[in-house]
Amino acid sequence: MNVVNRVLVVLGLLIALPLGIAMLVAPIPILGAVGRGVQGLMAWLGTVPGWARLLLGILFALAWMVVCVLLLILELRRPPRRMVRVERVDGGVVEVSLNTVAEHIAYELEQLPGVLRARSRVLARRNAVAVEVDVDMASDVEVPAEAARLVEVIRQVVGEKVGVRLAEPPKVRLRAAPAPTVVRRPVGGPPSAGNA
């Protein structure tokens, strides 16, 4: 929302600056032109049928309301947190980025045997984190034992290595790589040159 605020302020100043200078330097011609413009608009609106005026008024009012509501939502919406507080620090307040936590988790998981690839997502929840991890495993792993090992590594990395608190148990999604296909040869052995 900071970018939108800056754009609106710059546009407002670019419009207000020349208008304010012109109004202060030559108020009578400016006010006369504004008055003539308003009278022309009133004359034109007088020629438009009442139902069309009402319909146009409702359409412009709805458009204005949508723009204002969107700006209010953007202004009041809290930006997502990108940092989380480290728990075990004496003498100060230290925050670590969520990307750092995610990178530590992925790195440690990829060091484990049988893990082909790990992708982690970390979200801030008050002064703790929620962790979701997608792990690609080799096809020959025992899923319950491997899942327990992965959860324990995540807990150690988050709590001990990085020093932040888990808001909820980590969610791990395992995907095993397909087993390699075995090419079976005929029982009679390799084909002879005469059969080819």
Topology:
Elements: H1 2-25, H2 27-47, H3 50-76, E1 83-85, E2 95-97, H4 98-110, E3 115-125, E4 128-137, H5 143-162, E5 165-166, E6 171-176
Parallel strand pairs: 4-5, 4-6
Antiparallel strand pairs: 1-2, 3-4
Helix pairs in contact: 1-2, 4-5
Task: Write up this protein.
By secondary structure, the chain is α/β, with parallel strands linked by helices. The protein folds into 2 domains: 2-76, no CATH class; 83-176, 2-Layer Sandwich (Alpha-Beta Plaits), CATH 3.30.70. The chain contains 5 helices and 6 strands, in the order αααββαββαββ. The strands form 2 sheets. Strands 3, 4, 5 and 6 form a 4-stranded mixed beta sheet that branches. A two-stranded antiparallel sheet has the order 1-2. The mean pLDDT is 84.
The CATH architecture designation of the largest domain is: 2-Layer Sandwich
How much helical structure, as a percent, in the residues? 40-55%
CATH class of the largest domain: Alpha Beta
Order of helices and strands: HHHEEHEEHEE
The average pLDDT is: 84
CATH topology of the largest domain: Alpha-Beta Plaits
Rg value: 33 Å
Tally of structural domains: 2
What count of helical segments does DSSP give? 5
Number of strands: 6
CATH homologous superfamily grouping of the largest domain: Cation efflux protein, cytoplasmic domain
